[in-house]
Design brief:
Blueprint: E1 7-9, H1 11-19, E2 24-30, H2 36-48, E3 52-55, H3 57-63, E4 72-76, H4 84-94, E5 99-104, H5 109-121, E6 126-130, H6 139-144, E7 154-157, H7 160-169, E8 173-177, E9 194-199, H8 207-210, E10 215-217, H9 230-246
Amino acid sequence: MENETSKIFGIRAIIEAINAGKTISKIYLQKNLSGNLFSELNALIKKEGIATSYVPVEKLDRLSKYSNHQGVVAQISPIEFIDLDNLITTTLEKTTTPLFLLLDRISDVRNFGAIIRTAECTGVNGIIIPNQGNAPISADTIKTSAGAAFKVPICKVNHIKDAIFQFQAADIQLVAATEKTETLIYEIDLKIPTAIIMGSEDRGVHPSILKMVDKKAKLPLLGEIESLNVSVACGAFLYEATRQRLG
């Protein structure tokens, strides 16, 4: 259950929180809001690239415990996000074989938390998520990650493509998990600097992103079910990287 201290509500309060540098995971908005104060908030949301979702007033009532939310509820992130440029630079100073993880619109908080936990256990140097479309780092995410969300650096970017360009500039190979290939993950050299991309639960990695990567890989599926849970698949990919690097 979400901790109430992680939420703030009311347009002015949220404006002040953003201006004070608070890390906002997501803002829930009532449809058809208007007025000067809302326009000010909306401009800040766009400037900071904060994830938003338009929801019925009933959800805002539940989120705010029926307090005077003025049509807006914000979720404060329990962690601080890391700048991607700084992450790449500092990681390359520490190791010649970094391992990064890019998540393309993972929407389930428990999948997200499980992925963060596995990433920490396999020595991932950083996780990159998009501003929009990804599950927020909430109390449920923290709990499912067993606290790993406080240990693995997490970056937010406007779009996963932004991160891809930065990794390409740093000579880090990009490997996308997708069923749209004949190559198994075991055939990919993961001992070199690598960023693995995992896609959303229902759609996988976006086709436009697949066109940009260096390698595409899949896991063998020997049963009748055609796909794995994304957190399970991610674990298999990361532990293949671990196996290669330990070997």
